[in-house]
Amino acid sequence: MLKPSVLRELKSIVGPANCLASPEELLVYSYDATRQESLPGAVARPRTAREISEILRLANRERLPIVPRGAGTGMSGGSIPARDGIVLSLERMNDILEVDDENFIAVVEPGVITGDLQREVESRGLFYPPDPASRAFCTIGGNVAECAGGLRAVKYGVTKDYVLGLEVVLPTGEIVNTGGRTVKSVAGYDLTKLIVGSEGTLGVVTKIIVKLLPLPESVRTLAAYFNDVKSAAIASSDIMAAGIIPRALEFIDQAALRAVEGYLKEDLSRGAGAMLIVETDGPPDAATREADRSAGIMTRAGAVRVVRAGSDAERELLWKARQSISPALYALKPKKVNEDIVVPRSRIADILREIGDVAQRHGLLIVNFGHAGDGNIHTNIMIDDADLPRADAAVREIFTATLRLGGSITGEHGVGLTKAAYLPLETGPDAIAAMKRIKQALDPNNILNPGKIFLEQQCI
Ligand code: MLT
Ligand code: ZN
Fold it and tell me: Is the overall model pTM greater than 0.70, yes or no?
């Protein structure tokens, strides 16, 4: 419970209508896509950086945890509220402030839905490539906080590659601008890159300047079906090794296929053991040539069927299927432990084999899908409550194998709460100590998103 005097002060900053504290309202802001829950003491919905600055100063004075939140679609618990703290919802800061066609940039507020930004710039012949599967409802502020990746990262990179500058409210309340509107700038430390991916622990982003590209002229989409997951994994590595960089190269295993087919009531795969979706783009001739070469490579690697999307509707169905996997998996078991390991892409077949061994050893159903083009596999351990201890053991073994193969425990979902215990496995203690010194310097009272990235006992 927040002190009544704090609640009054919060109301006077954001207005009574934007300070929520009833149990029903708090419940709405209590969880994210991990389905973990924790009730905050209040929710504030500021409209300006100035209001956020006042809230952070209040939080420092009262030693109150503040948890910034976009749409709550995160998959590592980054926006799960601190018990009795304040959720800082950026939902009202949702304007696309500017699209500059001449300099290929857009300036947006953090609460803008990523898909809305994409549509807006595409209507002007421009392109914002980062494309998380949740783009229809996630916010760009959340994407910046987590450095979201998504389906087009294989060719176009991830959120940090598109953020040129930020307006950020520091934990102690100062409003600062980082970077700017130019592609080049080396003036001082790169605070933009420090903030992007810092999971809401180092500042509250209130304005984002993103780089845009010209919209590719054409797109070609292929679906390839395989008898087994190994040949699909090898085919995906072969495509990249041939020097083709598709704009998306997605992989779906058999269990994920069955789940999504049930969810959409569509028989896409006719019983196949795995599927790849390949999308190329560029001038029509080049996009077609790359798609044709990819089709040939997949056939040689054992694809039993390669289908070209002949219409927008067919293409949209393929992507709808891919983007629906996450919710569809809940038909298999009530809970999932969702990991997003990444390995060098030539090691995808190896890590899938190791995950298969882990599943067998622990008697667990593990479903894999994801961004084969950049080696980022979404490994979902599907469980009932009773399976949790075995799932924990399986996660540790999967992370150990991932690191042994030269990978990382998280490609795009962030450390948040769910991977905090495993971060030392990857970084070692000295790197964690350096990260904590940065945190301490910017947030001396540890008020901003405490307990995320670092285990609570590791916190300052
Ligand atoms: C995806 O690629 O679908 C997302 O990152 C979400 C997920 O891992 O389920
Ligand atoms: Zn993903």
Answer: yes
Which residues make beta-bridge pairs with 67?
A: 87
Tokens of 437: 């010194």
Q: Which two tokens stand for residue 433?
A: 């100590």
* CA separation for the pair 7, 42 (Å, rounded): 8
Nearest CA to ligand 1 atom 2: 133
Which residues, 6 or more positions from 249, have their beta carbon under 8 angstroms from its beta carbon? Answer: 154, 236, 239, 240, 276, 277, 278, 279, 371, 372, 373
CB of 133 closer than 6 angstroms to any ligand 1 atom: yes
Q: Please give the Cα distance from 147 to 27 (Å, whole number).
A: 27
Question: 352, 351, 363, 269: which is closest to 318 by C-alpha?
Answer: 269
**Helices within 348-428 (DSSP H only):** 348-362, 388-404, 423-427
Buried/exposed code over 420-435 (b: 16+ C-beta within 10 A; e: otherwise): bebbeebbeeeebeeb
Give residue 50 CA to ligand 1 midpoint distance, Å: 34
Pairwise CA distance, residues 400 & 422, whole Å: 10
Please work out whether the CB of residue 378 comes within 6 Å of at least one atom of ligand 1. Answer: yes
Distances (CA, A) of 78 to 127, 236, 413: 28, 31, 9
Reported as a single tens digit per residue, the pLDDT across 125-159 is 999 999 999 999 999 999 999 999 999 999 999 99
Distance CA 309, CA 311 (A): 6
Query: What's the rounded Cα separation, in Å, for the pair 249 and 301?
Result: 15
Q: What are residue 369's DSSP bridge partners?
A: 252, 378
Q: Which residues of 290-303 are buried (b: 16+ CB within 10 A; e: fewer)?
A: bbeebbebbeebbb
Per-residue pLDDT tens over the stretch 364-382: 999 999 999 999 999 999 9
Pocket test for ligand 1, best of 75, 76, 409 (most atoms within 8 A of CB): 75
Q: Are 67 and 109 in contact (CB under 8 A)?
A: no
Q: Which of 268, 255, 253 is nearest to 331 (CA)?
A: 255
pLDDT (tens digit per residue) in 238-251: 999 999 999 999 99
Which bin fits 160, alpha (ψ -120 to 50), beta or left (φ > 0)? alpha
- CA 389 to ligand 2 center in whole angstroms: 25
- CA 95 vs. chain centroid, Å, equals 21
Distance CA 419, CA 458 (A): 13
